[in-house]
Design a protein that fits this description.
With 197 residues, the protein is of the alpha/beta class. Helices cover 53% and strands 15% of the residues. The protein is globular. The model has no long low-confidence stretch (mean pLDDT 93).
Length: 197
């Protein structure tokens, strides 16, 4: 009887503006399925009735209007309140984790990818086999976020000040992929895949 090959679950994380999604998209193009936790969280906040009710109880009915999440109102509530941000993550994380486990069961690939901004903060790393941290210099990351979100430097620095630092994420990760527009990404990714396989 053939031995079933273990599915290797790999996490991709990194500080804001590091380019997690871009690196994940390369893994996807190479044939590895990717579960994007942030996209999944947004979907759940819009479609999971049980989660929606919990969010309303905690943050008030005003965060939903005609069953549509009012992102601006919710952002204002959590932006300057770390405890409320933690509470929101605490509500969302179990739903996203359950969906990830269900998603894994449907994948045929030996290596699957979970992309998450708050991988360590949410404890998602506990069910993963290897973690990749996507990294870039702070100035590069600031410029990327300013360009992407059409915001000023102070806004980006405020977000960064509330998050786990890039150095902390690197220390907790098994691999680091440098995404600084100088070092080629594909060879780094292929090297990681070879080591994981």
């Amino acid at each position: 009887m053939p031995i079933e090959k273990k599915q290797i679950k790999v996490g991709i994380t990194g500080a804001i503006g590091a380019g997690k999604t871009f690196v994940s998209s390369i893994f996807e193009k190479l044939g590895f399925p990717v579960f994007n936790s942030d996209i999944e969280a947004k979907k759940c906040m819009q479609s999971d009735k049980y989660l929606i009710e919990k969010i309303k109880v905690f943050f008030g009915d005003k965060v939903y209007e005609n069953n549509i999440l009012q992102k601006n109102i919710l952002s204002e509530i959590i932006f300057n309140d770390n405890e409320k941000l933690k509470s929101l993550n605490h509500l969302i994380h179990p739903v996203v984790s359950k969906n990830f486990i269900n998603w894994c069961a449907l994948q045929n690939s030996d290596i699957i990818i979970k992309e998450a901004a708050i991988l360590f903060e949410s404890g998602s790393n506990d069910i993963l086999d290897k973690i990749i941290c996507v990294s870039a210099e702070e100035e590069i990351r600031i410029k990327r976020v300013m360009s992407r979100d059409k915001c000023d430097k102070n806004h980006v620095l405020t977000i960064m000040s509330k998050q786990m630092t890039q150095k902390q994420k690197e220390k907790l990760s098994d691999f680091i992929i440098i995404n600084n527009d100088k070092k080629l990404l594909i060879p780094q990714i292929v090297d990681v895949i070879t080591k994981i396989s």
